[in-house]
Amino acid sequence: MHYSTNQEKVKYGVISSRTLIIIGIGLLTLAIIFVQGQWLTTLTTFKNYISISSGSDSQTLCSRNSKNSDEICQWYFLNYTPSSWEKFWFTNIEEFQNNVCERIADEKNLNKTILTVERLMELQKLGRNCTGSDKQQADELLSKMFYRQECVNSLTNVSFQEAEVSQVIEPLIGLLRDPLTICNRINSLPASAYKGAGVQSKRFFLLSVSAPFYIHPLPQNHKDTLQINIQSNKRNMNLPPWMYQRSKLNLLDMEFDLETRNGQNILIDLGSSYFGSWGGDTSAAAGRWFYEYYKRFGVKFDRIIAYEHFPLDSKKVWNQLPDDVFSVYTLINVGCAASGKFNPWVMLKAMAKPHDHVVIKLDIDTPAIEIPLINQLLNDSTINSLVDELFFEHHITVREMRPYWGSPPGTLRDSYILFTKLRQLGIRMHSWP
């Protein structure tokens, strides 16, 4: 009897030992998994930190990869705010229509004109990052495009504002071109003020790639943090993220991050002539001017589409192209049309996505085609939602331009209204010379 009892105790003791061994192995396994999990979490956080700090695609807040992995963020265009100087011109443009040059030359406007031209020339050359400029006060004369970054939690569907910025653009004043051109020279100004001030002057442009922007802190954020978050990525250098990573239709795109990585920089030149000259005038060349402006700030075009009605010498066309443009350049030497397959917006919609950076120049000296094209762009969101920077020479009747344009329909007021409407759509609208 005692033997049987002891045998049962031994039996149960053996079972108990095996159970303890199994439990021990299980606990050890769980401990290893836990330690590995902690290490991987730490490594992932470190990688995300490096990614954000290095200015890569993820740092522009398409989606959060750390503790806020359920948040998706995008930039939106808010509004266009003209400067007080532009408002003054817009309000009085019907009166000024007949004496633009005289108005530019009066003391009040002339001081602002000189200050603005000098500031824009500085920014074209050095970009927004030049510090200690004595011309920065001119930014008060420039108009502003406002953008906001908003985020939404995909689980709770709760949205919040992450950042708000304003980026400056040249004001709509005078003849909507370099104010020191066309009009007679002003004797009180030094000769240096007119350096580069030919009829085809492009000194009065300010593109987003070099335009200063100003951060407007929101209560939940700190300014220094925002400055890190809105840096451009390595591929686009100085091109701000709201110019290629924003929802231009104010719609939340859940595939935003994927499309952004494949975004293109596209230039469509309508009325291109040759890449390096127009009518033999190298200062009038559009293609080379855009190429050099963007390249100066580290941005390369992935596609350049050139439309030209006048027959060009093919060998001359290709010989003028820089080596890094040769493979991305397409010439359509039949011109463009207001409808049909040669309507440039057909090509635009087939080629571009809202998250590409698209620059368009329209100057074909044919109002019968230009006006329908610009109206299509103005009124069709499937077209204007693809455009970031737009340049257009709007031919109207104004005294100073009659030697060049004659007397086509429209007034300077019509140009002011058109350009303002396009800027209000979020397009950086400029007047091509």
Question: What features would you describe in this structure?
Answer:
This protein is of the alpha/beta class and 433 residues long. It folds into 2 domains: 1-54; 57-431, no CATH class. It contains 14 helices and 10 strands. The chain has helices at residues 2-54, 84-96, 100-105, 107-126, 223-229, 256-261, 286-296, 314-319, 323-326, 344-351, 367-379, 381-384, 402-405, 412-424, and strands spanning 71-81, 143-153, 159-169, 213-215, 265-270, 303-307, 329-332, 357-362, 389-392, 428-431. The strands form 2 sheets. Strands 7-6-5-8-9-10 form a 6-stranded parallel beta sheet, sandwiched between helices. A 4-stranded antiparallel beta sheet has the order 1-2-3-4. A hairpin with a 5-residue loop joins strand 2 (143-153) and strand 3 (159-169). The radius of gyration is 30 Å and the shape is globular. The model is unreliable at 1-15, 35-67 and 256-261 (pLDDT under 50).
| Strand neighbour order, sheet with most strands | 7-6-5-8-9-10
The ordered string of helix (H) and strand (E) elements is HEHHHEEEHHEHEHHEHEHHEHHE
Structural class, judged by helices and strands? alpha/beta
The total number of structural domains is 2
How would you sum up the global shape? globular
List keywords for this structure.
six-stranded parallel beta sheet; 2 domains; 15% strand; 39% helix; single chain; alpha/beta; 433 residues
